[in-house]
Amino acid sequence: MRTKAVGAAVAAVALTASLAACGGSSGGAGGGSQASNCTNKIVHSGVPRVSVWAWYPNMAKVVDNFNNSHTDVQVCWTVAGQGAPEYAKFQTAISAGKGAPDVVMLEDDQLPGFEIQKALVDLSPYGADSVKGNFSAGAWKDVSQGSAVYAIPVDGGPMAMIYRKDIFDKYHLTPPKTWAEYAADAQKLKDAGGPLFGDFGSNVPAVATALVEQKGGKPFDYDLGDRADIGIDIDSQAGKNVLSFWADLVKKGLVGKQDQFTTDYISGFINGKYATYVSAAWAPGYLTGQGVGKGSEKDQFAVAPLPQWDPANPVSVNWGGSSFAVTRQASDKKLAAEVAKGLYADNASLTDGWKTQTIFPLNLSVLHSAAFINNPVDFFGGQTANKDIYIPAENAYSGAVYSPFTVYYYAKFQAEIVKINSGATTGEQAATDLQKTIVDYAKSQRFTVK
What band does 20 get if pLDDT is binned at 50, 70 and 90? Predict the structure, then answer.
């Protein structure tokens, strides 16, 4: 049957792509975690245990909170890697038919690649609807396919623009409301002898994808209800325009080309090399953890809404976001589903998550709470960023459609951005070439491209 062939083909490439993304780094504990390999304390012995792979920084507290409050089940938690290393180990377990945990933390854009292999459990028969009301429509869409629900949301990444107040004040700038204003301000800053206005790193193709979606593009059209068919429209006019926009900024020397999440990028951000950072709601926590905002640059950061392509029709987009899924290898899927629904869902864990800026929670009990809404964010010098920026962005987010081969798509998109940044191609040509690459790949994996 062709749908089975598609799943098998994707599985083979998913493993290869994930391993390539790992760069040979160690992800901690190995795949196939069993209950005896728990990194946490089991509070109540003699009750069923559900194995969990997850990498949230405060996961130890989250697991302890769950285990202390449950006498009928205990979580056995393992860190199997962060992102790609975990996905590679999960893929190995899927291929082997053993070694997967009962519950696995996955980024939302990775879900379809595992769904198509039938590696995840549809949680709708296990009471997923009982927690649906805890999340926005956009957050729920990201973990669903039709009536099927493949994961329970935890955190998200509504996008915005962080900026340096000291640089904006010095050069008499105000946060741009549109991308046209962004480009004009970038030129103004360069003409005045200022720093780079932003950065177009090749290693964040998810950002470029989100900005294409913000402009109205739909790179993928995919539904598991017809799992062998896929729509691919990467070289839409929106796609060409967005890549050409950034290619022009790069060519003029208005933005940098440094890969993000690197030592050089972080030090540049600390030292005022960049005036803005197009980012997501989790960025303040990440930057704080990297030492940003603790030196002379303290209290110099603020956040503004993401610039719009069409201010008359504003669009909110997302970068990142993770959830808990139940794997097909779970021996007790009902019990595993209860863990997926209840883990990182209690008030203590959610409060710790947002107060430490570990996550931007998607649970409406937090998003509607006065404490979260009115929280003065230290990183932004006391700005009520949740109320003013991030919550409105999350409320307006309508969800996205991801491909079943996200790892491969991102790798090839990254290669095109490298060529843009080196001057080897134009934005429009990059969109055209990426379209052909992904269409050819989809066909080689036995998809029918609509």
Answer: very low
Condensed to tens digits (0 to 9), the pLDDT of residues 331-359 reads: 999 999 999 999 999 999 999 999 988 89
Position 36 scores a pLDDT of 54
Quick one: how far is CA 343 from the chain centroid?
19
Residue 260's closest CA among 290, 231, 235, 236?
A: 290
- The residue whose two tokens read 């603790």 is 294
- Say how many C-beta atoms besides its own lie within 10 A of residue 33's C-beta: 25
By CB atoms closer than 10 A (0-12, 13-18, 19+), residue 178 is: middle
Find out whether 153 and 323 touch, Cβ atoms under 8 Å: yes
> Cα–Cα distance between 274 and 164 in angstroms, integer?
8
Tell me what pLDDT residue 449 has: 97
Torsion of CA 39, 45, 48, 52, to 10 degrees: -10
Q: How far is CA 277 from the centre of its chain?
A: 16
Alpha-carbon gap, residue 393 to 91, rounded angstroms:
33
Tell me how far apart the alpha carbons of residues 149 and 133 are, in angstroms, rounded to a whole number.
13
Per-residue pLDDT band at 102 (split at 50, 70, 90): very high
Residue 153, beta-bridge partner list: 323
Sign of the dihedral through C-alpha 176, 180, 182, 184? negative
Q: Tell me if 256 sits within 8 A of 199, measured CB to CB.
A: yes
Q: Is the pLDDT of residue 150 over 90?
A: yes
Strand partners, 145: 148
The conformation of residue 89, written as its DSSP 8-state character, comes to: H
Question: Which residues does 18 contact at the CB level (< 8 Å), separation at least 6?
Answer: 84, 87, 88, 91, 407
Best CA proximity match to 179, nearest among 284, 377, 317: 317
Distance in angstroms (rounded) separating the CA atoms of residues 434 and 414: 10
406-422 helix and 427-444 helix, angle to the nearest 10 degrees: 150
pLDDT over 90 (residue 37): no
Residue 294 to residue 432: CA distance in whole angstroms: 44
368-377 residue pLDDT tens: 999 999 999 9
State whether residue 389 is helix, strand or coil.
helix
Beta strand 49-53 with 103-107 is: parallel
Token pair listed for 245:
């926009």
- Torsion (CA) 398, 403, 408, 413 in degrees, nearest 10: -50
Q: Could you tell me the two tokens for 258? A: 């440094």
The model's pLDDT over 270-328, given as tens digits with 9 standing for 90+, comes to 899 999 999 999 998 888 888 888 888 889 999 999 999 999 999 999 998 999 999 99
